[in-house]
Amino acid sequence: MNPPSNKSHGTSLAQGDSLDRSAPDLELVKPTEPAQDTQLAQIHAAIHALQRLTEVFQRRREQLASSVGITEREWRVLDGISSEDFMPSMFARRRESTPAAVSKILRQLIDKGLVSVTVSKADGRQRDYALTPKGKRTMLRLRKQRERAVQDVWLDLDEEQLASFTGFGFDLASRLEEYAGLGDQPARPAADQSAELKD
Fold it and tell me: 112 with 69: CB under 8 angstroms?
């Protein structure tokens, strides 16, 4: 009796080997793309740097405001009163706040003797807000401290790096605004906002 032929069995094994080689287990194969990994690492590092800068600027503004006996929000309102035709409702919209919140801050500033309020001569239904002498001295102290920060921190930075950082920063801001659907935003900060970048 002839032994069973291994021909078919061998063919089956050969075909199985061929299938194993041509269709490897995809779960075990994890192709790497070093270039993409490096780019993602750089992106996450940039996001971390931006977060750190944002937190540092916010803490610095709070520190400066506290040094003259006010809060950071009160500082924003004082800045608005000193640099524009101040209207609480318009200010609230620009700052994405509510008129009630701005009115509360105004009352606090009036109580601290930093702001005065009078009935508008042009429209009796409106109120005119102005800095008192004490309010002006407070803003002057804040401006001097910001100027000192420019001297101590910013002036030693490389001009080309500053220009590159500025261009990149505005480009990134535009991309984020477009992505988030925030609408048209100014290409450069307004006069009352640019000073905030110096702190």
Answer: yes
Residue 105 in tokens? 């801050």
Instruction: Give the per-residue pLDDT at 1.
Output: 53
Ranges 30-34, 61-65, 112-116, 172-176: which has the least confidence = 30-34
Q: Closest by alpha carbon to 77, among 96, 54, 95?
A: 95
pLDDT of 8 over the 90 cut: no
Let me know: does 87 contact 101? Beta carbons within 8 Å.
no
